[in-house]
Design a protein that fits this description.
It comes from Schizopora paradoxa. By secondary structure, this protein is of the alpha/beta class. It has helices spanning 9-23, 124-128, 162-165, 215-218, and strands at 132-139, 157-161, 184-189, 192-202, 211-213, 229-236. The protein has a domain at 134-228: Barwin-like endoglucanases (Beta Barrel), CATH 2.40.40.10.
């Protein structure tokens, strides 16, 4: 018969279960964590730059490169420009004023007014050729008048209002030389008339057309008792 070697049951059991545990020892390369890293191998950020490789601004210039070749300014017509001399100033034409004489006055004729200005709107010619004045007639006792003439009550004379006497054309500071002196006038009132000459100045007359007569001349228009005649008219002869 065959010979057999008996192995104890306990030893056989130990061998049956212990051997697999010893043979399945975990190696250090087989960790609990997965072989892949928590973070992916690739970087969180993409390898490409955040900004695109192309510039933010376009490569073309903002201003167009194809500007028009024509000039912006219009063509200027040089014919309308003034002629410029060598000095750089435009040619100017002007009229030379008249050359003064040795007296300092120009050669043209000069009219120099004489006497006191005429404050009456009536021209001198109108006064000398019959302008009609209207005013009051009074009388006074004559004597040495402003014209340098001595008269009396019987003289046919009259004193002109100071308003007319002082403004009469040609009047000066010397009343004796007043052109009105000796002028003949004819007065009318109440249908009557009298002709006298101016030999005095009436300082009390209120109107330019007033006349102050000698008593003899006044009575040709009205009695002395009337004293004053309104609405008398007169003119130079």
């Amino acid at each position: 018969m065959f010979g057999f070697k008996l192995i104890p049951l306990v030893a056989l059991a130990t061998s049956a279960f212990a051997s697999p545990l010893i043979s399945e020892t975990v190696s250090t390369s087989e960790l609990a964590l997965p072989t892949d890293s928590i973070l992916p191998i690739d970087s969180i950020l993409p390898t490409d730059s955040i900004l695109p490789t192309d510039s933010i601004l376009p490569t073309d210039s903002i201003l167009p490169t194809d500007l028009p070749t024509d000039s912006v300014l219009p063509t200027i017509d040089t014919s309308v420009l003034p002629t410029v001399t060598d000095t750089g100033l435009p040619t100017v034409n002007f009229t030379v004023p008249p050359i003064a004489t040795e007296t300092g006055l120009p050669t043209s004729d000069i009219i120099i007014p004489t006497g006191v200005p005429d404050f009456n709107t009536t021209s001198l010619k109108a006064r000398q050729t019959g302008q009609t004045y209207t005013g009051d007639a009074t009388f006074y006792t004559p004597g040495l008048g402003a014209c340098g003439e001595t008269d009396n009550d019987n003289s046919f004379i009259a004193a002109a209002s100071f308003l007319l006497f002082d403004s009469f054309p040609g009047a000066t500071a010397n009343p004796n030389n007043n052109p009105i002196c000796g002028r003949s006038i004819t007065a009318h009132a109440n249908g009557n008339s009298v002709t006298v000459k101016i030999t005095d100045r009436c300082a009390g007359c209120q109107g330019q057309g007033d006349l102050d007569f000698s008593p003899a001349a006044f009575q040709q228009l009205a009695p002395l008792s009337v004293g004053r005649i309104h609405g008398m008219t007169w003119s130079f002869n």
